[in-house]
């Protein structure tokens, strides 16, 4: 499988996603939108992207950039339970779905398996 991109400005959320995925997948974890865009612009092979969905981030721009890639990228937004509307908006912008914090390991691994059925 290509890499999984994890973008979240909250260090504990980013680390939790990376820790859940790192045993089975190659994870690229970034902490700001510029780094996230850099990964997409480098044409790095990314099969799955967990992108922060919040008022702090221009989620729509990141989703659009991810979907521009030639190889298919599954985009999943990560929103807080208090701000689920950001996740809903991300789906309207093209994300495949969204997950809410607090994170659930089984849910994250199921999404990763969907992106890489051979895992």
Would you write up a description of this structure?
The protein is of the alpha/beta class and 119 residues long. It has one domain (3-115): Response regulator (Rossmann fold). Helices cover 43% and strands 24% of the residues. The protein has helices spanning 11-22, 33-41, 59-68, 84-92, 105-115; strands at residues 3-7, 27-30, 46-52, 74-80, 97-101. The chain has a five-stranded parallel sheet with strand order 2-1-3-4-5, sandwiched between helices. Helix 4 links the parallel strand 4 (74-80) and strand 5.
Index terms:
119 residues; five-stranded parallel beta sheet
Question: TL;DR of this structure?
Answer:
This protein is an alpha/beta fold and 119 residues long. Helices cover 43% and strands 24% of the residues.
């Amino acid at each position: 499988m290509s890499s999984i991109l994890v973008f979240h400005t909250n260090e504990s959320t980013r680390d939790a996603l990376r820790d859940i995925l790192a045993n089975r997948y190659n994870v690229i974890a970034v902490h700001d939108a510029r780094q996230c865009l850099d990964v997409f612009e480098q044409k790095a092979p990314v099969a799955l992207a967990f992108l922060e969905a919040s008022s702090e981030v221009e989620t729509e721009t990141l989703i659009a950039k991810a979907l521009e890639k030639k190889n298919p990228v599954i985009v999943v937004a990560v929103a807080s339970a208090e701000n689920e509307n950001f996740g809903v908006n991300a789906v309207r912008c093209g994300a495949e779905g969204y997950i809410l914090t607090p994170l659930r390991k089984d849910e994250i691994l199921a999404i990763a398996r969907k992106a890489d059925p051979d895992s």
